[in-house]
Amino acid sequence: MEPTGKDKKEQSGWGPTVWANLTAVRDKSPLIQCITNFVSMDLVANTLLSAGASPAMLHSVEEIPDFTPQVGALYVNVGTLSADWLPAMKTAARLASQLGKPWVLDPVAAGASGFRLKACLELVALRPTVIRGNASEIIALSDASVGPTKGVDSSHESMDAMEAAKCLAEASGSIVAVSGAVDIITDGKTVVGVHNGVPMLQRITATGCSVTALIAAFVAVDPLHALEATASALSIFGIAGEMGMDIAKGPASLRIHMIDSLYSLDQAVVLSRVNIAGFS
User: Keywords assigned by UniProt (predicted)?
Assistant: First the structure.
């Protein structure tokens, strides 16, 4: 489903919203509790810091009752899931929901095993504000059945998961974002696509984890407009990737230049590069 002519004309109207959300993150520096996987911790923390947010890598279940009430948002990523970590994830998510704080779920490789799928479904039942995954992960959650996946990579394109994303959003009450060549964001009815980004980001581990953490920071500063905040975060991350790619020689240098670009984004660049459009 392609954006209509009217939708294409309206995409430029997203620029001020995206810039306002980035400015709010920089001004408020929201504290983001990250219960994320070992592979992603470094890039997640540096992404949040470069955007102006404050990361806290805290996953001890004993600390959650004292710490989670203080955060702007919670980010839960199941990439290196274990039975030891799951109680902390569920405790933090439950507490965030009870306190009315936004929280974001990254259901990494949700369909890879029965244990992983069950854990993800238990977390979805705790009503995340946003669920962000690749197409295969979103389809697995929507179908609520174990199917073959390709590790943390996706064997589907984001467009393949549009209907699954809409169904999952309606069933869970969450905003659902599907990463891909075009990032799809939906609340079950409205659907928008973010067209920013570069293919080489897929060659850098933890970029998906990092953009989900960035979504948590954006939702923290605009929790009442979670769909717009989610689209804004995905666009900003994609723009930083585009700028980094202009001078990168490969994945390693892209990682460095992307972080630098995220830190240095200004209003003129954001307004000129935002590429978000609705779907009819």
Answer: Kinase, Transferase
Mind giving me the DSSP string for 52-77? Answer: T-EEE----TTTHHHHGGG-SEEEEE
Looking at the DSSP assignment, which residues form a beta bridge with residue 194? 183, 276
By C-alpha distance, which of 49, 127, 42, 113 is closest to 82?
113
Please answer whether residues 155 and 136 qualify as being in contact, where contact means their C-beta atoms are separated by less than 8 angstroms.
yes
Q: What is the pTM of this model?
A: 0.91
Of the chain, the end-to-end C-alpha distance in Å amounts to 8
Per the structure block, which two tokens stand in for 181? 């060549």
Residue 34 has pLDDT above 90, yes or no: yes
Give tens-digit pLDDT for 47-89: 999 999 999 999 999 999 999 999 999 999 999 999 999 999 9
Nearest residue to 43 via CA among 252, 232, 259: 259
**pLDDT band for position 160 (50/70/90)?**
confident
* Local structure of residue 3 (DSSP, 8 states): P
Q: How far is CA 224 from CA 14, 16, 259, in A?
A: 17, 17, 28
Specify which residues 193 forms β-bridges with. 184, 277
C-beta neighbour count of 117 within 10 angstroms: 22
Strands (E) across 90-210 are located at: 103-106, 130-134, 175-179, 183-186, 191-194
Judged by DSSP in three states, 104 sits in strand
Nearest to residue 30, comparing CAs of 49, 44, 46?
Answer: 49
**And the tokens for 194?**
């973010």
Phi then psi for residue 187, to 5 deg, are -105, 10
Question: Which of 240, 173, 176 shows the shortest CA–CA distance to 204?
Answer: 240
Pairing of strands 54-56, 103-106: unpaired
CB 12: neighbour CB atoms within 10 A?
Answer: 14
